[in-house]
Amino acid sequence: MHVDEEQLARWAVEGDAPDPAAADHLRSCDRCQAELDELRRVSDLAHSLPSMEQPSDEVWTRITGELDSTEQVGPERRFRSRTLAAAAAVAAVAGAGIGVGATLVATDEETPATPTAIRLEPLAGKSGTGSAGIVQVSGAEELKVSASGLAAGPGFYEVWLINTDGKRMVSLGVLNPQAGGTFQIPTGATAQGYRIVDISLEPEDGNPEHSHDSLIRGTLPS
Amino acid sequence: MTGAALWRVSAGPAWVTVRAVTSKDAGDPTAAEIATAFAEGRDAGLSAAYRRWSGLVFTLALRSLGSRADAEDVTQQVFVAAWRGRGTFDPDHGDLGAWITGITRHCIADRFAVRQRDVRKAEAAVRLADGGAAPQVVDEAVVDRVVIADELARIDDPRRTILRLAFYEDRTHPQIAEQLGLPLGTVKSHIRRGLLQLRDRLREVSGDDARR
Ligand SMILES: [Zn+2]
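Above: query sequence and zinc ion SMILES. Below: predicted holo structure tokens.
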């Protein structure tokens, strides 16, 4: 019998040696050993990742400028695909750093009062309450979120920032309602209108989209 | 998720209607959709490709070259070269991100070569011996790490949060389960599948380089 695949992944990520029974098996099974080696390689790389950075806006101007002199590349009104046009508006956000992804930062029990903290109120027919506030941590913005009385359900709670333009949103991460959490806000997001803090109940269905099951919500001051 | 419910939310003094959309259900193009638009020469393909991969290209150049100015030059070169060379990209037989990463490798290597030439000239000018150093190549571990960081940022929650806790904060599986209030089995499954997802991404990128 081969070693449980999830157990192999756990050894790879946690850097532990396999237990004696598994070690025996690994010595005689190339398949399991190869899988462990490969998972270890990925995990080792992933344990020291660079932070992703964005070029200045000027670079895009330079690219279109250089191409414009030789061929027609122009403004986005020439989108032919509606899907892509809509996507471009969203993807523009990624260019501004949202694609870099939000990190769940360490959680601590004490919640210092933040000057900008807002209350998160339940949506119609929902229960629960919470608060959210922006804290500045070495030049970056983080959102400190706490919640209580959220409707229980299968799945997990996810924190979102919705743009006041009503067209875009970005996921900040998973919230443990018992502990609360602090989430990195993508650079410039609040200035771009991502000010509506939304906590949703998400089923474990592998669908990354917002479940549309929002529980509590509030808007950060501009 | 078209026809999504409209939500009324308070945003300042006025009530505005916020449609429940994410970047995904607003029609965030998949890599394949971007690739098709790009190969067909649609402007939307170029701008979408830039938005999707400029961070990857720029970070890779920055980590390799150590200079923002050089990294921005390389980013410009890469997208200009990719757009002009789009006729050689076949969306049916390749991944656009991997293809663009390959171009980035070459542009960075060119930049190393230029630097080396400049050094040689300077050395000749002061009559220093030319060491004849081997041409500097792109460090594949840097490529791998940037590719993983880029992919990790795109992984959907809760997997992304779980992986970040494991990689950035060295949390054990049970610690992650406790912190996120998720069953241990869920955490185990997401970590394994997440590792495979990152591995597949690495394979695509290095596979592309092997074909070039
Ligand atoms: Zn085996």
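Chain B has eight helices and two strands.
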